[in-house]
TrEMBL record:
InterPro entries: ATG11. One of its GO terms (biological process) is autophagy of mitochondrion. Signal peptide: none annotated. It comes from Bugula neritina (Brown bryozoan). GO terms for cellular component: Atg1/ULK1 kinase complex; phagophore assembly site membrane. This is Uncharacterized protein. It comes from the Eukaryota. PANTHER family: RB1-INDUCIBLE COILED-COIL (PTHR13222), RB1-INDUCIBLE COILED-COIL PROTEIN 1 (PTHR13222:SF1). GO terms for molecular function: molecular adaptor activity; protein kinase binding.
Length: 189
């Protein structure tokens, strides 16, 4: 099991697993020395003191291990959260993609139809220029329009119909898969 240490991330060098103020070599030496001692009351006292040091060492190692396990648990929770967020983001992305693809297919179908309609627009304007307005209808609105095209252009004199059609055709021809996907992708973020 990999034990995550918070110190390993926060510090420049990985931490050395040691207990403060206790040298393992000196403890080993004390144990060997106590084994060589003669059975006396002083030996009993020294061995009792050594046993207390070993108990303190065990408690310190237990605390160190618990801290390492706790840090590993925190790391595990953090990674689970990261993975959960990634899974949520991925599922949202696929859901948005499932919406985008049919919309894009419809757009491509309509784009071809709209471009064809815009290509025929000058012919439609010529047809409107040849259709006269009936004199009985001229009395319903004020103006000196003789044809339907003149009537349509007098409704909005600030825009030229043919120029607007060319502008729309140019804008529609610039719509590509890449530009739509790029804009859609940034909207999803």
């Amino acid at each position: 099991m990999f034990l995550f240490s918070l110190k390993a991330i926060e510090e420049k060098y990985p931490p050395d697993i040691k207990i403060e103020h206790i040298d393992r070599k000196s403890i080993r030496q004390k144990i060997e020395d106590s084994m060589k001692m003669a059975p006396t009351l002083a030996t009993l006292s020294a061995r009792t003191q050594l046993a207390l040091e070993l108990k303190d060492l065990g408690v310190a190692y237990e605390k160190l291990c618990k801290d390492l396990v706790h840090h590993q648990h925190l790391q595990n929770q953090g990674w689970r959260t990261v993975l959960s967020n990634l899974e949520d983001s991925l599922s949202d992305f696929f859901r948005q993609t499932d919406k985008f693809i049919p919309w894009y297919r419809k757009l491509l179908e309509r784009k071809a139809q709209q471009l064809e309609m815009l290509e025929r627009f000058p012919d439609t304007c010529e047809l409107l220029a040849r259709i006269p307005i009936l004199s009985s209808l001229k009395t319903l609105f004020s103006g000196s329009s003789d044809t339907l095209l003149q009537y349509c252009t007098t409704l909005d004199e600030t825009h030229d119909l043919l120029a607007e059609a060319e502008s729309a055709k140019a804008a529609l021809s610039q719509v590509t898969w890449f530009t739509l996907f790029f804009h859609w992708f940034w909207l999803c973020l």
